[in-house]
Design brief:
By secondary structure, the chain is an alpha/beta fold. The termini are close together. It has 2 domains: about 5-15 and about 255-420, glycerate kinase, domain 1 (3-Layer(aba) Sandwich), CATH 3.40.1480.10; about 20-255, Rossmann fold (3-Layer(aba) Sandwich). The mean pLDDT is about 95. Helices cover about 40% and strands about 15% of the residues.
């Protein structure tokens, strides 16, 4: 077997997945046709600044633009202005960015082209509360969503019904200009209307759907928010709205493409690879337990896959907050996985967010193997207690197994890679 250092191997797998979603390569392949009027570039998401820099490199005409990204995720641009704001909880800088984006697309004509660079994270970066609501209301909604355990599709259906920019409203504001959206998907199933809550791409999710999810996940939202969602004023534009008739949407990078690239890198290094799915959802700790069971089966019985093998999966799990620990969905997944493979030899795993950040700390995720839980115990850390307290970051930090690649400039959701020797 060619793998000598599992961490180096798994890092190479992560890097291959990220490289497949490189903005410059993917944008070059999806450039829109020029129109005789102005070209305005707008955007939002954790990869939007790198997408803007890439667009500047490959577009040979005049442009003007504005994109918003997370603090620390900026990139050097000459003609497109970069604004940084808070993620995952919105702030006043995001509120100002939303206002300026809506202002940027005012007064355009049918001769003008708007290029929208959209990536995951845009939901939090684009607070723009509906009339009668405040930034505090939108923050309260976001915090309730993050703690609810609801899938991302349900979250974004709720978000777009309390906003003046999400759910296609930014594209509607640009009418009659032609809007071409270049989308990097971090959504299971790759529905571009759900990425960043679809500021330029409407979807069919209704107020009734939003209210059903609020009830199903027991969310406690401010009375003002509930009153708004219960009113017709909250209705978002429908996909058949004539204002969207001439627009285009291009999915330029996704988890599926990145997982295939990761698998190819494994095979290049002499390890067979299998992809379970690019759209796995569910409670992170439960998904971690299932992955651990599969890894144990392969390690002990060489089924359903013969070892050595790399097992890959993508998608976006959720975390229902039970306490105020430090962590994110990838580290929580991996802590449950580590508990599930405790004491087993030859199993090594990495779980990481392809944007470089898992939760609110500076790590993308973490590494684990069959010795992780024992090493935590030796460091005075009880893995099960840490999992119960949503404190996976602290657990992995104690044994030096956090994975910190820094901002990657793209975002195609989570990568889980399990090497079984």
């Amino acid at each position: 077997m060619t793998v000598l250092d599992p961490k180096s191997f798994l890092t190479a797998i992560f890097n291959a997945a990220v490289a497949a979603a490189d903005p410059e390569k993917t944008i070059r392949n999806h450039l829109p046709a020029k129109l005789k009027g102005r070209t305005i570039v707008i955007g939002a998401g954790k990869g939007s600044a790198q997408m803007a820099a890439a667009f500047e490199k490959v577009w040979d005409g005049p442009i003007d633009g504005l994109v918003v990204t997370r603090y620390g995720y900026g990139a050097k641009c000459e003609r497109i202005q970069i604004i940084e704001a808070a993620h995952p909880v919105p702030d006043a800088a995001g509120l100002e960015a939303s206002r300026r984006l809506l202002e940027k697309v005012q007064g355009l004509t049918s001769d003008d082209l708007v290029v929208a660079l959209i990536s995951g994270g845009g939901s939090a970066l684009l607070p723009s509360p509906a009339p009668g609501l405040t930034l505090a209301d939108e923050i309260a909604v976001n915090e309730a969503l993050l703690a609810s355990g609801a899938p991302i599709a349900a979250m974004n259906t709720i978000r777009k019904h309390v906003s003046t920019i999400k759910g296609g409203r930014l594209a509607a504001a640009a009418h009659p200009a032609r809007v071409v959206s270049l989308v990097v998907s971090d959504i299971p199933g790759d529905n571009p209307a759900l990425v960043a809550s679809g500021p330029t791409v409407p979807d069919t999710g209704s107020r009734a759907d939003a209210l059903a999810s609020i009830a199903a996940y027991g969310m406690k939202l401010p009375a003002s928010v509930m009153a708004h969602i219960n009113s017709p004023e909250a209705d978002a534009p429908r996909p058949d709205d004539p204002r969207f008739a001439g627009n285009e949407v291009h999915l330029i990078a996704s988890a599926g493409v990145s997982l295939e690239a990761a698998a190819a890198e494994a095979r290049r290094q002499g390890i067979e690879a299998v992809i379970l799915s690019d759209s796995i959802e569910g409670e992170a700790r439960e998904v971690g337990g299932v992955h651990a069971a599969i890894a144990r089966e392969v390690a002990t019985r060489s089924r359903p896959f013969a070892k050595p093998v790399l097992i890959l999966s993508g998608g976006e799990t959720t975390v229902t907050l039970r306490a105020k620990g430090k962590g994110g969905r990838n580290s929580e997944f991996l802590l449950a996985f580590a508990i599930g493979v405790d004491g087993m030899n030859g199993i090594h795993a990495l779980a990481a967010d392809t944007d470089g950040i898992d939760g609110s700390e500076n790590n993308a995720g973490a590494f684990a193997d069959g010795s992780t839980v024992a090493r935590m115990r030796a460091a005075g850390v009880d893995a099960k207690a840490m999992l119960a307290g949503n404190n996976a970051w602290t657990a992995f930090n104690a044994v030096g197994d956090l994975f910190v690649p820094g901002p990657t400039g793209t975002n195609v959701n989570d990568l889980r890679a399990i090497l079984i020797r």
